[in-house]
Specification:
CATH class: Alpha Beta
Structural class: alpha+beta
Strand content: 15-25%
Order of helices and strands: EEHEHHHHHEEH
Distance between the termini: 27 Å
Number of strands: 5
Radius of gyration: 15 Å
CATH superfamily: Glutaredoxin
Number of helices: 7
Strand order of the largest sheet: 1-3-2-4-5
Mean pLDDT: 95
Helix content: 40-55%
Number of domains: 1
CATH topology: Glutaredoxin
CATH architecture: 3-Layer(aba) Sandwich
């Protein structure tokens, strides 16, 4: 599995996400604001990939782009960029984002196609399925499935 951690603290929010899911896009902004605000130093976010291929044809490509950026230490920057430019994620766009982030673009392109990276994304998805994730965002708080709203106030209350 490919866990990426943002924030710190005793409480943990685990999110299975799809970069093409509009609900994940909304949740990403709310979670980031909470972790930088009221939950700073109290909670952390772990994310894993859960591409919903049936609904989002670019889900795998965007997950691969984020994981390739991670190999160069820039996961969260790519994460935020993919959600910020949600509707612009064709192969040319992803290459341009890698360049914008100062990544070695040739290495990025090689990593995007790496079978080990693709297998890691699939392992994330399989772990999500095993945990009962049936859509995105799939959220867990301290190991328990969370099915509440993911607006800022509700998430802060749930994690407080």
């Amino acid at each position: 599995m490919t866990d990426h951690v943002r924030g710190s603290g005793d409480r943990e929010l685990l999110e299975y996400l799809d970069f093409q899911c509009p609900y994940c896009r909304t949740a990403a902004g709310e979670i980031k604001a909470a972790l930088e605000g009221e939950l700073a130093g109290r909670a952390r976010l772990r994310v894993r990939n859960f591409p919903v291929r049936e609904k989002h044809p670019r889900a795998d490509a965007t997950a691969r782009a984020a994981e390739a950026a991670d190999r160069q230490g820039r996961y969260w920057e790519m994460h935020d960029l993919l959600f910020a430019r949600f509707e612009h994620v064709d192969d040319e766009d992803l290459r341009a984002y890698a360049q914008e982030l100062g990544l070695d673009v040739a290495q990025f392109e090689a990593d995007v196609a790496d079978p080990a990276l693709i297998a890691a994304i699939e392992a994330d998805r399989e772990a999500g399925l095993a945990a009962g994730v049936d859509g995105t965002p799939g959220l867990f708080i301290d190991g328990e499935r969370y099915r509440g709203f993911y607006d800022h106030e509700t998430l802060v209350d749930a994690l407080w």
